[in-house]
Amino acid sequence: MAARTTRQEARARILGAFSAQLDRMIPEDESVPLKGATFADFEDQAEALAQTALPVVLEERAALESNAEVEAAGRCPHCGSEGAYLEKEVTQPEVRSRYGPVVLTRQHARCRSCGGSFETQDKSFSPSGSGVGIAGGSSADAAGGAAGGAGGRLALPSRLRTSLRSSGAGAQ
Fold first, then answer.
1. Which of 31, 55, 94, 139 has the fewest CB atoms within 10 Å, i.e. is most exposed?
2. Is pLDDT at 94 greater than 60 in this prediction?
3. Strands 106-111 and 100-103
4. How far apart are the first and last CA of the chain?
């Protein structure tokens, strides 16, 4: 198994994304005026920086994992056969993380014995835990329920559920 990128490449891409957004927020050129006049404006600029740079950090970190790319398909999870092979096609699903959409590269395999297909990456990997899945799609969450949690509801962080309950907004 191998990483999809090197640390140097990952750092360069992350720094490039951060630097480009920082240049929009605080231009290096002193003759270019700063944008915004209120603290709320500054917060909006910082949020834009985070929404641009943090997904890149997550994409690159995932690509650095030793199991980001496999050389062999391994055993078929459907029939247990060792007659599985890697397909040439890879997909890049967009998943939702707490920092915004992240694109992850996925390898696929097919079994010669049963014809089943499967992703080669570890199914226990989740960008942000249970209730977070493919953007715009559905997939089983880490707890084994439907996408969005039990009963199709969105799984919210506990601090947000508590806040919603106390405000009356989360009443069923």
1. 31
2. yes
3. unpaired
4. 47
